[in-house]
């Protein structure tokens, strides 16, 4: 199976370097351009299905990319990490906190533990591996794409998440 991971296009919060988490924010003008750019790059690929997070920025990115050529199925396993009280906090303020200490399963201020994100990614991959799909498009978010990446390459350790930084509107291709 070929799987193409795409991080949603840019939003105003991305542009301002503000943490989004599960806040449901739309694509901005640059994000729309990024989505159309991805569409152009993969226009000759016939996807069996597209899975997307249910959040607006991912779903809108998926709709632009697929252009009605395949079904889009939303899946809650693909939603971004819930950042709790850190939602909509400027990144410079946010990075002062230690909840990115990935050696511990920190869960305070209603922040989703990184290990849970990793488990969601693993569960999603197990579900699609048990399908008959040959070519799959997944449109999701920063943290979940990180977790999918490390699950796909077989590095089953959530402490590795910080070493891979998926960019807005970029394509990551894998064979699983």
Automatic annotation (TrEMBL):
<dbReference type="GO" id="GO:0016791">
    <property type="term" value="F:phosphatase activity"/>
</dbReference>
<dbReference type="Pfam" id="PF00300">
    <property type="entry name" value="His_Phos_1"/>
</dbReference>
<dbReference type="GO" id="GO:0005829">
    <property type="term" value="C:cytosol"/>
</dbReference>
<feature type="binding site">
    <location>
        <position position="57"/>
    </location>
    <ligand>
        <name>substrate</name>
    </ligand>
</feature>
<feature type="binding site">
    <location>
        <begin position="7"/>
        <end position="14"/>
    </location>
    <ligand>
        <name>substrate</name>
    </ligand>
</feature>
<dbReference type="InterPro" id="IPR013078">
    <property type="entry name" value="His_Pase_superF_clade-1"/>
</dbReference>
<protein>
    <submittedName>
        <fullName>Histidine phosphatase family protein</fullName>
    </submittedName>
</protein>
<dbReference type="InterPro" id="IPR029033">
    <property type="entry name" value="His_PPase_superfam"/>
</dbReference>
<dbReference type="InterPro" id="IPR001345">
    <property type="entry name" value="PG/BPGM_mutase_AS"/>
</dbReference>
<dbReference type="InterPro" id="IPR050275">
    <property type="entry name" value="PGM_Phosphatase"/>
</dbReference>
């Amino acid at each position: 199976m070929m799987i193409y991971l795409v991080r949603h296009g840019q939003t105003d919060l991305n542009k301002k370097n503000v943490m989004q988490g599960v806040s449901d924010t739309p694509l901005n003008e640059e994000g729309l351009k990024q989505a159309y750019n991805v569409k152009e790059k993969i226009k000759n690929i016939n996807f069996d299905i597209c899975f997307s997070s249910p959040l607006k920025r991912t779903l809108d990115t998926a709709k632009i990319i697929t252009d009605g050529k395949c079904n889009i199925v939303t899946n809650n396993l693909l939603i971004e990490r819930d950042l709790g009280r850190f939602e909509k906090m400027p990144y410079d303020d946010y990075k002062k906190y230690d909840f990115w200490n990935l050696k511990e399963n920190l869960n305070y201020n209603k922040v989703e533990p990184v290990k849970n994100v990793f488990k969601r990614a693993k569960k999603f991959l197990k579900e699609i591996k048990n399908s008959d799909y040959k070519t799959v498009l997944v449109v999701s978010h920063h943290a979940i794409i990180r977790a999918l990446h490390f699950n796909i390459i077989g590095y089953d350790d959530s402490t590795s998440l910080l070493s891979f930084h998926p960019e807005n509107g970029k394509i990551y291709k894998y064979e699983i």
